[in-house]
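SAMPLE LOG
Freezer: B-3
Tube label: C17
Construct: single chain, 176 aa
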Amino acid sequence: MKTGMRAMMGILAAVLLCSWPALAKKEKGGGGPQIPPVITADQAKSAVSAALPNLSVGKPFTKQGKQGDINLEVPLLLGEKIVAKVRLNPATGEMLLKGQKAFVQKLSVTPEQAAKTVQGMLAGAQAGAAWLGKQGEWKVPLLYRGAVVAEIGVHGQDGTILPDWKASKDATMFGK
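STRUCTURE (predicted):
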């Protein structure tokens, strides 16, 4: 009886040890630990403000959405790298706010008109208040008439403007 009880206790202990990792709370979220930034939010905003006069307009491109809608996007360049993109309404050519989409299935704006609109926006653009991104970089909104039209990433360690890899990929794929 005692050996049977010992065997049962041993099996129970083994089951608990094996199942303990399965009961542990899984951590959501990606990547590793966030690197704390060295520069402040004000320094990140100043870096973007200093870069604003050097921003130029890239070649506008269109993408087709899942439901056949057309997205008109214009990349913003700092030197040779794409640092942000601005969306325009393909029917009217007016600037769209960040996150806003227009469901249009016909393009009525020429690339030259789109580039001219964004060039005019750059003259009146301002840097907004920065917030901390997922990877320890600062995200600084680009404001036009008080509304966010794009965001620019700033390296949290050295304060350099980061390229927008997604916008660069889109411009390479869709910019003919």
